[in-house]
Amino acid sequence: MDSLTIILFVAAGFILLALLLALYRFIKGPHTTDRVIAFDVMSIAGIALIAMISLFSSRIIYLDVAIVYGLLGFIGVIIIAKYLERSL
Amino acid sequence: MIIKRFLISFLVFLAVWLLLTSSLQASSILVGVVVSLIIALLFGIKAEVFGEIKLSLKAIINLIAYTFVFIWELIKSNIDVALRVLNPSLPINPGIVKVKTRLKSKTGRMVLANSITLTPGTLSIDIKDEFLYVHWIDVKDCDLQCATEEIVKKFEKYLEVIYG
Amino acid sequence: MEALKYIGAIISLFGSIFLFLGALGLIRMPDVYNRIQAGTKASTLGTILTLLGIGLIMPSWGGKLFILIMFVIITNPVSSHVLSRAAHHIGVNMYKNTVTDLLEKDENNTNSKPEKQ
Questions:
Q1: How many domains does chain C have?
Q2: How many whole angstroms separate alpha carbon A87 and alpha carbon A71?
Q3: What does the DSSP 8-state code read for residue C94?
Q4: pLDDT per residue over B22-54, tens digit each?
Q5: Which residue in chain C has the smallest CA separation from B138?
Q6: Distance between CA atoms of B106 and A17, rounded to whole angstroms?
Q7: What is the domain extent for residue C6?
Q8: How does pLDDT run across B71-89, given as a tens digit for each residue?
Q9: Which of B18, B85, B139 is opposite residue C28, by nearest beta carbon?
Q10: Which residue, among C63, A64, C51, C75, has the nearest Cα to B16 in the 3D structure?
């Protein structure tokens, strides 16, 4: 295990910590909008984590998963916001 | 106007296809050209987003300068947020202020609102005609004029040349 | 070639630290609008830096990573903007030390219509 892998593992650990903190806000959040912004941050951090995983297993095909995941997260946030605004 | 929209949307779709496949084989380029031609003919000519950019030398120089200004502001805003979050006393003084923009085109206003969101301490909330409502994390005591000077001016002078 | 990989790994590490700080801001900030500010900004630059570092380690993946970076830059401010507008529209409480709210004032002035559905 060389130092390059160790640095990348530490980076992946920080992203996992970010996911955990956002999950705390997602569970606790006093209002629906708090939960939605926590979901948004989680999906963005998920994109970075999927890219990391595709680097660890060196398969470029996982990046397509990241693109589609980002697309679905964006559309989800827009739909929920429109619903809250009663303009859907 | 329609021809400009068609050309720009066609080039954008083709560039996205080439970056996605990242191969230079003749067959994949041919498929990309045909598909982006069809999409540009069906949808690209109706999308106003592609037609509002100006194509002069001055606009392109301003676009490049704007990109660098934007990246610099993005880095500055992140360091600002990081310092605020790490500070134990949480120094915030939030409020919603109103600023005025001189941009006329819809795309220019969209780019301006996105840029405001990604710059230090500001988040655009709503737009009504030519007034933007901005959530400011550290409100300085000032009126419409000085808030406009503080938030909008640094991007507007580039976007005015690019979008008009 | 080897040095470029190490630079990429360090850039990825910085990006993940920014992502972590953004999530920390999500917990520490007192109301929705400030949470959106911290969450959006830090997560945008964090993801961009992480993907950039991966691109330096694997240069042949550049195309897809560039598309991901452009996608994040364009969509992330839009979703935060839509969300904050919805929050203001349904009247989520603001932080008690909030200084001004000009949008609220202007909406009260113009909405003289009785119903507000």
A1: 1
A2: 21
A3: P
A4: 878 889 899 999 999 999 888 888 877 777 777
A5: C99
A6: 39
A7: 2-110
A8: 998 888 888 888 888 888 8
A9: B85
A10: C63
